[in-house]
Design brief:
The chain is an alpha+beta fold. Helices cover 45% and strands 28% of the residues. The chain has one domain (2-126).
Length: 129
């Protein structure tokens, strides 16, 4: 009878150990899902900051000038936006220079945990003078 009780105790201990490993594995999965969701939200926030600046430049609200770097505020706090332009020297079908055509490079930097993250956007804008 004592051997039977010892065997039942061993079975219960083994069952609890397996259950504990399952709970620990589930906890790590939840942690990974939360980390992935935080990274996705940060990436979305950076994409939105780039889209906003592109719209501001295209509408003429922001003047394209020499390269500049700025720390964003408000909803985009923690993001650093870098903006640069390159004047393009291209010709049209009549072999005339197209004046006011610029390549705009935007870059947003931020830290996700301990890792630096970067998102970039390049587009062209034509400014008549």
């Amino acid at each position: 009878m004592k051997n039977r009780r010892a065997f039942v105790l061993l079975e219960v201990m083994l069952g609890v150990a397996i259950f504990a490993m399952g709970v620990i594995a589930l906890g790590r999965c939840v942690n990974n899902c939360l980390s992935a969701e935080i990274a996705r939200a940060e990436d979305e926030r950076a994409r939105l900051a780039l889209e906003n600046r592109m719209a501001e430049i295209e509408s003429g609200e922001v003047v394209i000038e020499d390269p500049k770097t700025e720390e964003l505020e408000g909803r985009f706090a923690g993001l650093t936006l870098k903006q640069s332009r390159t004047q393009l020297k291209v010709k049209n079908e009549k072999n005339e220079d197209i004046l006011g055509l610029y390549k705009i490079d935007l870059e947003v930097d931020w830290n996700n945990g301990n890792e630096p993250q970067v998102k970039q956007l390049t587009f062209y804008v034509l400014r008549s003078r």
